[in-house]
Design a protein that fits this description.
Layout: E1 4-14, E2 17-25, E3 36-45, H1 58-65, E4 69-77, E5 83-89
Parallel strand pairs: 3-5
Antiparallel strand pairs: 1-2, 1-4, 2-3, 4-5
C-alpha cells in the first residue's frame, strides 16, 4: 500500500507539477513528509484537469489545484525530492 498525504495546492510549478501544503498524513506512512512538498502528477482525478499533460495550461492548473483539498498517493521520490503521485480531489474534510 502506498503512502498518502493530503493538503491544499498552493503553487503551480509546471503543467505537471505543483506544491502542496500538507495538512494530513496517513497513519503508517513509510516515509516522512514535510509541511510543503513538490508533487509531479502521474495520474489525476481532479475535476477540470485534463489527463493529457499537453492540454494543461497554467490557468487550468491554478483553477483546478490552488486551494483545492487534494489527496496524493505517493509512487516515488526522485533525487531532487519531488514526489511522483496519483492526485485526486478529496472534497471538504474528506479523506
Amino acid at each position: 500500500m502506498s503512502d498518502i498525504i493530503w493538503g491544499n495546492g498552493n503553487q503551480i510549478l509546471s503543467n505537471d507539477s505543483f506544491e502542496i501544503s500538507v495538512t494530513h498524513r496517513k497513519d503508517g506512512n513509510k516515509d516522512n513528509y514535510s509541511d510543503v512538498e513538490k508533487i509531479r502528477i502521474t495520474e489525476a482525478d481532479v475535476p477540470g484537469l485534463p489527463q493529457n499533460v499537453a492540454e494543461r495550461t497554467e490557468e487550468v492548473m491554478k483553477s483546478c489545484l490552488i486551494d483545492a483539498f487534494l489527496k496524493c498517493e505517493i509512487i516515488s521520490r526522485d533525487d531532487s525530492g519531488v514526489l511522483s503521485s496519483k492526485v485526486s480531489h478529496s472534497g471538504v474534510g474528506g479523506y
